[in-house]
Design brief:
This protein is mostly helical. It has six helices and no strands.
Length: 108
């Protein structure tokens, strides 16, 4: 069974090589896994304790998609039928949570 932390890390990196529709579903998957009451804490713990290189790469991608290009990510997510109810605050929160878990200055 796939674990949520590695799935998030993989999807963060894969977004840049996807078409617009798949980009939206990947972003929505990341958002859902990160905010899910059961998977969210597990995924963030897994990311926090991941290898340093993985954390560094995933941090850059999380910053890109959920901070620098947050408005674009929100548009892509809302283009997915299941993503119509996602708000800018949701995207911001996910970015904050992921960057907090992946920050190399935090303990691993």
């Amino acid at each position: 069974m796939a674990e949520p932390g590695p799935i998030i890390a993989m999807k963060l990196q894969a977004i840049m090589n996807r078409g617009a529709a798949k980009e939206g579903t990947d972003l929505l998957d990341i958002l859902r896994l990160t905010l899910d009451t059961q998977c969210g804490p597990v995924s963030r713990d897994q990311l926090e304790h991941a290898d340093e290189q993985l954390r560094a790469d995933a941090f850059l991608h999380a910053q890109r998609w959920f901070q620098e290009h947050a408005a674009r990510s929100l548009r892509r997510i809302r283009a997915v039928p299941e993503g119509h109810d996602v708000e800018a605050d949701d995207v911001q929160l996910v970015g904050d949570l992921l960057r907090g878990a992946l920050d190399l200055s935090s303990p691993s």
